[in-house]
Design brief:
alpha+beta; Aminopeptidase
């Protein structure tokens, strides 16, 4: 049963209802690719001259690849302007959960024409797995100074606001009510709040962070200039707070934050209402 006005139950070409990614992945490749293509922002097709039927560009090269193995409730979508490009323009991973919910595991939308910041590798060029295996401080400083957030290698294309309603409609068409996700950084969590997500776990931590960054409180006092990521004034913006947290100002791991979106509803959560948006 769908909940969004005008939305319909997703079916295959024979009219059989589809309720999970596993159901979609049981279809022939052409049909399932077509269904999954409906959650790629339309602006990407026009921006990079990609055919929505063949998924090829004007040069004849295939630009969009779907990894959706039969028997699994998993899908990965990659859009690359060129097959030799190091980074995708669009990268999405979604999975079924055991509770008939949809997990939005990753959604990255890069501007391939913007400068690259090598924050995803350590100073020896080895993948750092989102800094769990080391950091590249010089590149992080460059990225921060350029206005990027932690773990961003390129500026984004500002398309998440286009993607999410399409994805929400897709999830609803499978009869699912809930989208779950795990924000990888403080700024991700704040951004998801703006799109209507609430917290499964971690709301207390988010409120504690906000209180700790208020004037005279513990995290605000730690903005003492002891590193480039702990500058006075960083407490007033999501950008500044996120880099300070990335730098370890909480003195505990950023971990255990789980969020959810109920289809068709905005939870109205705002754990940093006094933020400076400049």
């Amino acid at each position: 049963m769908t909940r969004l006005p005008g939305n319909r139950q997703l079916t295959d070409s024979k009219g059989n209802p589809l309720f999970t990614l596993r159901d979609i992945n049981s279809l022939q490749k052409k049909e399932k690719d077509c269904l999954y293509s409906k959650i790629i922002p339309g602006r990407l097709f026009s921006m990079f001259s990609i055919s929505p039927e063949s998924f090829r560009g004007n040069d004849g090269e295939r630009k969009i690849h779907f990894i959706a193995p039969e028997g699994l409730g998993f899908c990965r979508i990659e859009v690359r302007n060129s097959p030799v490009d190091r980074d995708p323009v669009f990268f999405l991973e979604i999975t079924d959960t055991h509770y008939h919910q949809m997990e939005l595991a990753f959604c990255i939308i890069n501007d391939p024409g913007s400068p690259r910041f090598n924050v995803d590798v350590d100073e020896n060029g080895r993948n750092n797995c989102f800094t769990t295996l080391g950091r590249n401080i010089p590149e992080e400083i460059r990225a921060m100074e350029a206005g990027l957030f932690p773990n961003q290698i390129h500026r984004g294309l500002q398309m998440f606001s286009e993607f999410l309603p399409m994805f929400e409609s897709f999830v609803d068409s499978l009869g699912m009510e809930i989208i779950v996700a795990e924000p990888l950084s403080y700024d991700n969590a704040i951004r998801y709040e703006r799109y209507g997500f609430d917290y499964i776990t971690g709301k207390r931590l988010m409120l504690e962070i906000n209180e700790g960054f208020r004037k005279g409180n513990i995290y605000q006092r730690r903005l003492d200039g002891s590193s480039p990521f702990r500058r006075a004034g960083f407490e007033t913006t999501v950008h500044g707070r996120s880099w300070a947290i990335h730098d370890g100002i909480l003195e505990k791991p950023w971990d255990g934050i789980r969020i959810y979106l109920q289809v068709g509803q905005n939870a109205g959560i705002d754990t940093f209402p006094e933020r400076n948006t400049k």
